[in-house]
C-alpha cells in the first residue's frame, strides 16, 4: 500500500507546476513486480489527472487576480496563452503528458474556461496513454 501511495503522490506532484518525475517510480514498481500492472497504471493515471485538475482549477480562478501587482504573468504572457489556446483549443490537451509544456497547457485550459468534463476526459486519455506506453516498453525490455 505504501508503494501505491508513493506512486499516487509522485504522479500528482509531477502533474502540477512543481518539477517532479513519476515515471521512475512507475518503472521501479513495474520491475519489482509486486503489484498488478493494471493497478499501477490506474494509480499513476489517477494521481496525474488529479494534479492536472489542480492546474485547471488554479488557471480557472487565477484571472480574478490579474490586476494585482504580484500577478505571476504579464499581460503579454496571458494574451499569448489565450491566443495559443484559442488556436488549438481542447485538442492541445492531448499534449498534457508532455514534459515542460504539458503542465502549462492544463493551466491555460483553466484560464480559457475549458469545460471540466472535456478537460478530464482528454487529459485522462493522454496521461493513461503515456503510462501504458511506458509500461509496455518497460515490460518488453525485461
Query: What is the makeup of the main sheet?
Result: none
Strand percentage: under 5%
H/E series, N to C?
HHHHHH
Q: What is the terminal separation in angstroms? A: 24 Å
Poorly predicted segments: none
Number of strands: 0
Shape: elongated
Oligomer: single chain
Mean pLDDT, to the nearest integer, reads 92
Number of helices: 6
Question: Percent helix among the residues?
Answer: over 70%
Q: By helix and strand content, what is the structural category?
A: mainly alpha
Q: Specify Rg, calculated over alpha carbons.
A: 16 Å
Supply the key terms.
elongated; mainly alpha; 0% strand; 142 residues; 70% helix
Protein topology:
Elements: H1 2-15, H2 23-32, H3 37-62, H4 75-88, H5 102-111, H6 116-141
Helix pairs in contact: 1-2, 1-3, 2-6, 3-5, 3-6
Structural commentary:
The chain is mostly helical and 142 residues long. It is built from six helices and no strands. The protein has helices spanning 2-15, 23-32, 37-62, 75-88, 102-111, 116-141. Helix 3 (37-62) packs across helix 5. The radius of gyration is 16 Å and the shape is elongated. The two termini are 24 Å apart.
Brief summary:
This protein is an all-alpha fold and 142 residues long. The protein has 6 helices and no strands. The mean pLDDT is 92.
